[in-house]
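ok so for the tutorial part 2 we go from a plain amino acid sequence to predicted structure tokens. step 1 is just haveing the sequence, like this:
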Amino acid sequence: MAEYVIVFNGEWVGELTGEDLAAASRRVTALRAEMTEAGALVFTGGLNPDAPVFSVDPSGGTPLFTDGPFVESKEHLGGFAVVDVADEDEARMWAGKVAMACGWPQEVHRFQSPRRLPETS
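step 2 — the prediction. this is what the tokens look like for a chain of 121 residues:
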């Protein structure tokens, strides 16, 4: 099994009416249930565009927190789903369903396989 993240860029979402959003919400709710039943869904969520965003930089030896991201990621990343599937074909299938349910494009990225760190004595 491999984990993939299916994400959408908030800028890809066009102007939507309340009715458009309600219809998309119904489709996404049904799809989440389907993904859960199939055992593919790990986690899904949309990001709150009104919540604070901050960055943390460890390069000075202690964490330095600053307001906002280095890039405008709050306007880029709008939401995501993490799926655990057998292969890329299955990831593509779920991503297609997510895109159709939401009504806007999605990107798919595979997580790195867990690596074993060398043991130290």
